[in-house]
Amino acid sequence: xxxxxxQGQNTKKNFAPLIVDVAVPLGSYYLFxxxxxxxxxxxxxxxxxVPALRTVWSxxxxxxxxxxxxxxxxxxxxxxxxxxxxxxxxxxxxxDSAVSSTIAIGIxxxxxLGKPMMTAGMKPFLVKGDAAREAAWERLESGAxxxxxxxxxxxxxxxxxxxxxxxxxxxxxxxxxxxIPVDTMVWLGGxxxxxxxxxxxxxxxxxxxxxMEAMVSAEVKDAQKKATEVRDLELxx
Length: 237
Known about the structure:
The chain has ten helices and no strands. It is an all-alpha fold. It folds into two domains: 1-84, no CATH class; 86-237. Helix 3 (49-62) runs antiparallel to helix 4. The longest helix is centred in the last third of the chain and has 55 residues, at 182-236.
C-alpha cells in the first residue's frame, strides 16, 4: 500500500509540470475558442494567464525561470501579435510556422544554457513514477554515476533533435507556403507536421531516450545489487 502510494505521488510530481505548463494552457485555448466561442485573440490572451503566473511565481518564490511556462507564454505572445496579420493567404499559412520556430529556438537556447528544456517532457516516461527509477535518474543527473557523462550528453541530444526537427518543420512550411498552391499547402502543412513529429520521436528515441532508459534501468539494478550485497554482509556478521 505504501509503495503504491509513494509511486502515485512520484507520478503526480513528474507529470505535474507538463500538465500545468503545457496541457492547461493548450487545453484552455481550445476551450475558450471552441467551447465558449471566443475570438482567437481572446482565447490566446486568456490561455496565457496560467503560464504568465507560473513564470512570475517561479521568478519570485523559487528564484528561477520556469522554462516550460515561459516558452508557452512567449509562443502565445507571438501568436497574439501574428493574429493581426491578415489578407494574404500565403502569409496566413506561413505565420503558423512562427509557433514551431519559437519553440525550436527556445529549445536550442535551453541546450546552449545547459538546461535542456525537453527533459521535463521525457523524464516522466522514463521514470514511470517509480521511486527506484527516480533515484537512479537523480544519480545520473548529479554526476554521481559512471554513466552520468553519457546520460547528460544524450539528454542534450534529445532536446537538440527536437529543436532541429521543429525548426526544419518551420522552414519546410514557410517554403511550401510560397512555392506550392495554397489549396495544396492547406492539407500538406498537416502532413509535414505529422511526419516531423514521427521523425522526431524515432530519431530522439534511437539517439537519446532509448539509451537513457537503459541507463536508468541499469542504475536501478546496480543499486539493488549493492543493497543485496550490503544485506548479505550484515547477515554474515
